[in-house]
């Protein structure tokens, strides 16, 4: 039986580049890998990653040391996922949305016109 992805969210006032790099490093350190990401200007990023159930606790424990504060619902969802038995060879998919609080203007992307 396939598990539903964990939907987690956190917020920070720290530099987004540093936080994204730190979270990425912690995913790798827990034996996980990034499957997909979406950037929403400089306001938020969503990272979808996968890891083995044994790596979930390692990742959760390491998140305490980061600048990203996971919300209470996310912490509860992580605790429930760690308590649930996982079949051998199972992967856990996590969708982590990070919101950045800052005074910077929105990033503007210039999209060139395509003839045709």
From TrEMBL:
It comes from the Bacteria. This is Uncharacterized protein. It comes from Pararhodospirillum oryzae.
């Amino acid at each position: 039986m396939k598990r539903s992805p964990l939907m987690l969210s956190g917020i920070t006032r720290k530099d987004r580049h540093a936080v994204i790099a730190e979270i990425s490093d912690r995913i790798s350190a827990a034996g996980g890998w990034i499957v997909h990401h979406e950037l929403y200007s400089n306001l938020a990023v969503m990272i979808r990653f996968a890891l083995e159930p044994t790596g979930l606790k390692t990742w959760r424990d390491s998140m305490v040391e980061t600048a990203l504060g996971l919300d209470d619902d996310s912490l509860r969802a992580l605790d429930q996922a760690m308590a649930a038995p996982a079949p051998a060879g199972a992967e856990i998919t996590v969708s982590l949305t990070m919101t950045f609080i800052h005074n910077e203007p929105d990033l503007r992307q210039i999209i060139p016109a395509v003839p045709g």
